[in-house]
Design a protein that fits this description.
With about 525 residues, this protein is mainly alpha-helical. It is built from 21 helices and four strands. The strands form two sheets. The protein has a two-stranded antiparallel sheet. A two-stranded antiparallel ribbon has the order 3-4.
């Protein structure tokens, strides 16, 4: 099942797996060197400009966020008594999200919200009938108020602020320049997220190499590093890590416990890329140069005030993790802590400030639109609800329907098999999106953040590394992957098909993951 051709993508709906072309008439007005005229209004921020922006940001958000599950099952829902049938809605919705935009795109475009609602009803209605309205209401409120709201607000703030940072200009794509750009994007990913870093960096690195005969490898390594592995060091970097943070994992735990694995992969990939790119660049030097579509000009940044707002997002999250006033707002199914309410309000305010101070043509240059928020909200609200019984079954451990899966990642003496956790999490993250996969194995490992950060720290590291690293194994493993693919193809890069990309990932990444296994998890 490979990606669609350019013509098909143009006709395709605005879904997580498509990026329609945007009419030239709605592009932001440029000055003589191809930079946005910041003093002028651009129609690209309005309705006419929503087409391509919805596709791009939908590729960023809708796949990864739509696939994120709730972090808790409601109290009183005994997973030991639930059968595999309770997982059917969850699996059905995931399957629809993965295949709908490709197999029935036009129907999916108009009815994805109804499809998500259908699977959600198939979860809640049997829950009401079998367990009672009280348990069902508590489960839904617990999930939506404690997880859904916080998660969507964080992503809303991140993509609003990152969408206000625009990089213009062009460099010459020499091996050293390309390696440097990849290193910058990789470092940026843990600060603004793999989504934000991919949005900011992909166009500059493609423009730098648009006069190269062979530039596919540049985009492939970009996906490996910037869209996946680079987001390893903070909860802001990748959705599964933020889910861990919401479950109680310390903000800087990933910084200290995933740094070695991340550094090993980053150095290995950058060295391999530099050698590979140098060989190809040397061959091209002996041939007649191609016409440079974007002549060299200095790099410029617009919307730089948004970097300060990114720092404010981090500060708000850190304060919520350390400030414990002990004031809670109770509701059926749980209670909301004051520090988390304050954090979410602060994130919304930061996003609104970004909207106020960022010139509209800057957002137009990033093809920013609000359209995907509606799509995202409908899709992953359904996933949150459908995951309720699945997580309850996982919390039941060996007594639940997923007992065989528990046995798979457990040694005969009862200790966790960290190698199995790493590869099982990674294998599923390659195709089912890494956020729900992380949550599944987090629960399988006991779901207790204190234990997982303490005596089971290596297990949590294996789960985290598997989810973040191996999301790079396919176009749909992590949200930015397909976004980068679509943008690169739209800019003239001859990207490989779905399975063609996996030839690259299996040939390059899998041997490195084997090395990570023996170095860090044996």
């Amino acid at each position: 099942m490979g990606p669609k051709s350019g013509e098909e993508a143009t006709r395709a709906p605005l879904t997580p797996l498509t990026l329609p072309r945007r009419p030239a008439s709605v592009l932001p007005r440029m000055n003589g060197v191809g930079e946005p005229m910041l003093g002028m209004r651009s129609a690209a921020c309005g309705t006419r400009g929503a087409g391509r922006a919805r596709g791009m940001i939908g590729a960023v958000l809708a796949l990864s966020l739509a696939m994120v599950g709730p972090a808790f099952a409601a109290e009183g829902l005994d997973g030991a008594g639930l059968s595999f049938l309770w997982a059917v809605p969850f699996c059905g919705l995931l399957l629809c999200i993965a295949t709908g935009p490709v197999l029935f795109p036009h129907f999916w475009e108009h009815h994805y919200g109804k499809i998500a609602a259908f699977w959600g009803v198939l979860t809640v209605l049997p829950l009401v009938l079998s367990k009672g309205a009280g348990i069902a209401l508590a489960a839904v409120l617990h999930t939506m108020l404690l997880e859904y709201v916080s998660f969507i607000i964080l992503l809303f703030a991140l993509f609003t602020v990152a969408g206000g940072i625009l990089v213009t200009g062009n460099l010459r794509g020499t091996p050293m320049v390309n390696t440097g750009l990849l290193a910058i994007g990789t470092a940026l990913a843990s600060v603004v997220g793999t989504t934000g870093a991919s949005m900011i960096m992909i166009r500059p690195i493609i423009r730098a190499n648009d006069d190269r005969r062979t530039n596919v490898h540049v985009v492939i390594f970009f996906i490996f590093l910037v869209s996946n592995i680079g987001g390893s060091l903070t909860p802001l970097g990748d959705p599964p890590l933020f889910l861990g943070f919401l479950r109680g994992v310390d903000f800087f735990w990933t910084t200290t416990h995933m740094f070695g694995e991340m550094l090993f992969l980053v150095i290995a990939l950058l060295v391999l890329f530099y050698v590979w790119d140098s060989i190809l660049h040397g061959r091209e030097d002996r041939l007649a140069p191609l016409k440079d579509k974007t002549p060299d000009r200095p790099i410029k940044l617009f919307g730089t005030a948004n970097f300060a707002l990114l720092g404010a997002i981090i500060v708000a999250i850190l304060i919520s993790a350390s400030w414990k006033p002990g004031i809670n707002v109770k509701f059926p199914g749980g209670e909301m802590e004051l520090q988390n309410i304050a954090r979410d309000i602060a994130l919304v305010v930061i996003a609104l400030i970004s909207l106020k101070i960022t010139p509209k043509p800057v957002r137009a240059g990033n093809e920013f639109s609000w359209g995907p928020i509606k799509e995202v909200a409908k899709l992953f609200a359904g996933i949150f609800i459908c995951m309720i019984p699945v997580l309850a079954m996982l919390k039941a451990g060996k007594a639940g329907a997923f007992g065989p899966l528990v046995a798979l990642v457990t040694n005969p003496d009862g200790t966790p098999n960290n190698v199995a956790y790493f590869w099982a999490t990674g294998a599923l993250s390659s195709f089912l999106d890494n956020a729900p996969t992380y949550l599944v194995f987090f629960e399988l490992a006991g779901g207790d953040p204190k234990a997982l950060m303490g005596p089971m720290a290596l297990t949590l590291a294996a789960i985290s590394c598997g989810a973040v690293f191996m999301g790079a194994n396919s176009y749909i493993g992590n949200a930015p992957n397909f976004m980068v693919y679509a943008i690169a193809k739209d800019m003239g890069v001859k990207m490989p098909s779905f399975f063609g990309y996996m030839v690259w990932s299996v040939g390059i990444l899998v041997p490195l993951f084997v090395a990570v296994t023996f170095i860090f998890f044996r």
